[in-house]
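Case study: endo-polygalacturonase.
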Amino acid sequence: MKFTLYTLGLLVAVASAADIYNIEQLEAAKKAKDKNIVLKNIQVPAGQSLNLETNLKPGTTIEFAGRITFGFKTWDGPLVRIKGKNLNIVGKPGHVIDGEGHRWWDHKGQRGNRKPNAIYVQLENSKVNGLYLKNAPAWGFSVNGCKNVDFTNINVDNKDGHTKGALNTDGFGVAASRNVKIMNSRVNNQDDCLALQSDCDHIYFDNNVCEGGHGIAVIGGYGNPKPITNTFIRGCQVIKNNIGIRVKTMRGGKGLIKGVTFDNVVLKDISEIGIVIIGNYLNSGPRGDPTGDLPIHNLVINNVRGNVLKNGTNHQIWVKNAKNWKWNSNVVGGTKKMPCQGVPNGLKVEC
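Here is what the predicted structure looks like once written out:
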């Protein structure tokens, strides 16, 4: 009898999950303080975000279990907004968050029509696992103000955009965050796989695959002068991107990049430059001499290896006030040479 009662109780607990098929049901479930919300085949109205931030109790589990779609509107988005503490965000097998980005893509990216970013995340002490984002109109995941958050088994699939006019579809943009881990994930897109920006500490980008885009980027001085520290990019593959890995600081910017490590990163068929470290970045490309007010310290390049296509460049370095670097790379194949300027004394880099 005890076993039967326990089983019945378990069935009741499972049945109490709120299955959500529209925005109205979602709002009702949040007001009812449901702690297990299952999203199924929701059509989000044009110009609205799928709101997963207000009225969510700590400890809530949100499961994506169907196809989530969005009405068309030229706006900034995001299509999905996730915010809270102690949340568990889960993508179930067969689900898709379908941005249907082809409705916005115009070959111009941010310079064209307004396009919504896909998923904005501001979480603490939470986990995001197994989400499948397909054809984001613009940025994929905007990770902002997060603390102690794990992202695992994420798939950002924008490969349709290679032939349908997508640009500026960054996979993960991370800013103002602490102790964030992005692991065992895959990005196929038309911009940075990872764009790590100012005011970040202890960011881990481990065992991820980046395909088709602009590589893995650490960007100092973009938006504010707060430093980027203790960043670890390990065990990743960068396949058929135009850039492999890069650390770039804004020309005229202020701040510091300190303690960035690239370890065991494989580059395959990079079309332009394998490793880029520059201190004179502008959105239009490197311009003039680095100003040196945003130096790169304690940079580690270890076991970064692979190939650049013919007419590409293996390494490009143009920095000022850099110090305490360690360098071990084996990037080959590029025939276009660029000078190395500002390499710390005693370090040998083949440019």
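For the exam, be able to explain this: The chain has a mean pLDDT of 93.
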